[in-house]
Amino acid sequence: EVQLVESGGGLVQPGGSLRLSCVASGFTFSGYIMNWARQAPGKGLEWISYISSGSSAIYYADSVKGRFTTSRDNAKSSLYLQMNSLRDEDTAVYYCVRSGGMDVWGKGTTVTVSS
Amino acid sequence: DIVMTQTPLSSPVTLGQPASISCRSSQSLVHSDGNTYLSWLQQRPGQPPRLLIYKISNRFSGVPDRFSGSGAGTDFTLMISRVEAEDVGVYYCMQATQFPRTFGQGTKVEIK
User: Fold this and answer.
1) CA dihedral over A65, A69, A72, A78, signed as positive or negative
2) CB contact (8 A) between residue B102 and residue A101
3) Is A66 helix (H, G, I), strand (E, B) or coil?
4) Is residue B53 within a helix (H) or strand (E), and if so which, with residue range?
5) How many beta-carbon pairs under 8 angstroms link A with B?
6) Which chain A residues are Cβ-neighbours of B41 within 8 angstroms?
7) Considering only CA atoms, which of A71, A37, A65, A23 is closest in space to residue A51?
8) Which residue of A71, A79, A112, B33 has the fewest CB atoms within a 10 Å radius of its CB?
């Protein structure tokens, strides 16, 4: 079964940092583009990052550029999101999403930025 | 950025009746490779999103055939031929032709 499991969410103060992880199983992780997307409470979906299968191409939404860094470890079938300088508006459920077509979504991990 | 605009934002439907959602993009979604990367996703209450349709009209694995997609260029439609109770949720269109990827605002489908 294809599965994506996110972890690392929690409560953090404004200006703080957090690192999210996503472990993939059931498919050949190294062959797939991966994305991060998020959903603020009661709001719609927002794409935030894309990383190619070999990490040669990485793109970010303007809202997180310069603060968030996406990386992956194909040997561990894992995707990461390093989030720095967190703001109140970064509060959301963060999803790990497979492929350019965003065909498989994890269940998400919740990040709350609040003092 | 490409702006995706969905209508309606809310759609009360009768069980067994059809439902239709429109999505318009602010510019053509035809990629330089000739494909149009327009997808539809479903988000049931309390669940993560799920891909239904990709490249305008292709049903993803396991998606019932009552869901269909159509359109071209900047105008796209998701049709549910006969709405079932399990179809309640929010539906999003999404473009993956250009960065940043962008989503429509979402259309809430509920049963009358």
Assistant:
1) negative
2) no
3) coil
4) strand B50-54
5) 52
6) 45, 102
7) A71
8) B33
Please tell me the distance from the alpha carbon of residue B108 to that of residue B90, in angstroms, as a whole number. 4
Q: Specify the amino acid at residue B41.
A: L
User: Which tens digits make up the pLDDT trace of A16-68?
Assistant: 999 999 999 999 999 999 999 999 999 999 999 999 999 999 999 999 999 99
Say if the Cβ atoms of B48 and A106 lie within 8 Å.
Answer: yes
Residue-wise pLDDT tens digits, B14-63: 999 999 999 999 999 999 999 999 999 999 999 999 999 999 999 999 99
Are A50 and B55 in contact (CB < 8 Å)?
A: no
Omega cis (within 30) before B8: yes
A62, burial (CB in 10 Å: exposed 0-12, middle 13-18, buried 19+): exposed
Q: For chain A, what percentages of helix, strand and coil (3-state, to nearest 5) are there?
A: 10, 50, 40
Sign of the CA dihedral with B106 first, then B11, B89, and A111 last: positive
| A18 CA: distance to closest CA in chain B (Å) | 21
Using CB atoms, pick whichever of A44, A61, A95 lies closest to residue B105: A44
Q: Say how many residues make up chain A.
A: 115
